[in-house]
Write a structure and sequence with these properties.
Strand content: under 5%
Shape: globular
Number of helices: 12
Number of domains: 1
Mean pLDDT: 73
Helix content: over 70%
Structural class: mainly alpha
């Protein structure tokens, strides 16, 4: 697979997203060797395949079962995972790739510190290479320029979640809801993080019910995704009640 093909496939994955925490899209091309660009593209692909709630990026529940299994530890995984037949890229290598990719953009940003397009590009590179603390910094800079940008706040929430700050992610989504109380992406993501990050089925169901109420014209495939997640939440709550009953009888 060529570098361009690899990068395009990232965009293809996200192109039909029904709901997203973070719309990765096509990574910006910066200076660097062909090899570093290829490794970067593959790192992006590995991240999308490997993250525990990566199905959000595709608008599909195809990874839901792996998401639930990964969330059992209570924290999202940030380990880079290998593509089929490949080797895992170390976090240090991903950091170096990210720094190389962002260097010319950060230099350009010095002359245009309020350029939100540049800030978004830099944040996306750090996000896709698992450098979530750095991604947080640039998403926050975007929000400092426009605190009402719901899409950017969702991206920051995603980065915080994958970086392990579940409460911070939920706080950002709640702030986004003060701007748009019926935003479908925000409500869907809030439900998923509550379910998988906090094991809060009741809270997840509340978010998804609000989503359906506020968006009566939701496309059938998107509504089906929400209903499937609601069923998963109800199943989890049933399992929790059963386990609690067993423990109480012991």
């Amino acid at each position: 697979m060529s570098t361009n093909e690899a990068v395009r496939s990232v965009g293809d994955v996200d192109a039909g997203a029904a709901f997203t925490i973070q719309e990765v899209g096509t990574a910006p091309t910066a200076r660097g060797t062909v090899e570093s660009k290829y490794v970067f593209a593959m790192a992006v692909l590995c991240m999308i395949v490997g993250l525990p709630i990566g199905y959000l990026l595709r608008g599909s529940s195809s990874s839901a079962s792996s998401a639930q299994a990964a969330s059992s530890a209570g924290q999202p995984s940030t380990a880079a995972k290998p593509a089929a037949g490949g080797n895992a890229t170390s976090m240090a290598e991903l950091k170096q790739i990210a720094d190389n990719q962002t260097a010319p953009l950060i230099q350009k940003l010095k002359g245009s510190p309020n350029d939100t397009a540049l800030l978004s590009q830099i944040a996306a590179i750090y996000y896709t290479t698992h450098q979530f603390a750095e991604a947080d910094t640039f998403y926050r800079r975007e929000l400092a320029i426009d605190p009402t940008d719901v899409a950017v706040r969702n991206k920051l929430a995603s980065s915080l979640y994958y970086g392990g700050d579940i409460d911070g992610a939920i706080d950002q989504l709640n702030q986004a809801l003060t701007q748009d109380s019926g935003d479908a992406n925000t409500l869907f993501n809030l439900g998923v993080i509550k379910l998988h990050g906090k094991q809060d089925g009741k809270g997840a169901l509340a978010a998804w019910r609000q989503l359906l109420k506020a968006n009566p014209q939701l496309a059938p495939e998107r509504k089906a995704t929400v209903l499937k997640q609601m069923a998963a939440a109800q199943s989890m709550m049933s399992d929790q009640r059963t386990l609690h009953g067993v423990r109480s009888s012991e």
